[in-house]
What does this fold into?
Amino acid sequence: YLSRSLKFRTIAQTALIAQLIAGTASLGAAAAGYGYWALVLNVVTAAAVTSLTYRRVCAWKPRLRVATATVRARAPYVGYSIAIRSLYLLRDQSLFIVAGTLGDLKTVGYLSLAMRVARALGQLFEEVTSRPLISLISRQQNDISQFGNVLRTVLQIIGLVAFPCFVGLAELGTPIISMLIGSRWAPAGHFLPWICAGLGGWLFLHVVAVALRARGLTRGAVGLTAPAILVDVGIFASAALIGLDLALKIWAVRAALTVPVLVWTLAARLGVSGRSLAQIWSVPVLATVLMLLSLRWLEGGTLRDPDRFGLLALIVMGALVYGLALIALSWRNTHHKLLLGAHWR
It folds into this structure.
């Protein structure tokens, strides 16, 4: 209810208060010697505080009765939630299970660290796009033109921010891990380029699936997500024959091969044509490529083995190149459109 009312500040404040109270209760129980019951108390307290707060701040309140028609209407959504959560669980854990079966604990640790670093970035964008996207788009689900406009804005944000972040992490992941965690964890950076490529493709898939869900096309969302995850599980399982490195590379290729299917889905179901998507993403992609080339040039020259300040300089220079390229390319594109419009007038 609060999400659809766009009251995200209330949601965040409630979550913060609930976690503070639950954390205090949990720490007190742990100090008193209650062991794992402190964790149980944390979850129960957070849920209780959240529920009581929502009951006070929401105009709508649940009642002790069951509306059969409402249950039937919500059944597809419940089925979608169960299916998608099960698929996400399979996606998140299958790689670690395979790696733990094939490799030693050191390899699993490196892979787990690389995956967690990249996934923390990916989940940030997933969270940013999920709840606001559903709240905003669901209001326009019967107007495909307005729906497409909102979705294009979300895709533009992904192109402007997510792409350069994933590319920058793939390129500078090893020195970042060495500086922040320790040089003994530097081998984890070996996995980052392919993991970032795979998770970047997954982010695009996630946005399209959430948009399908917002339009009420839950079967389409599951039908789009399930094959990709099942193929990924098969790719990870093949590491037993071809090795972990090659399996991760194939996963990145699978993510790239899924892009045409997602572009077709955007055009056929969500009101975003392939041409408009190319217009949205062309400038960020070119600016990201220029950023990557500049980082490669700097790493091969003056900042071959950067220390802490050198790494900071690399990050700043990469961001500066990306920003300047973005401004230059955007101005050129806008200037071209203005000249074309003046010509036709």
Q: What stands out?
A: Residues 144-180 form the longest helix (37 residues). The chain has a mean pLDDT of 81. The two ends are 49 Å apart (CA to CA). The CA atoms of residues 49 and 245 lie 46 Å apart.
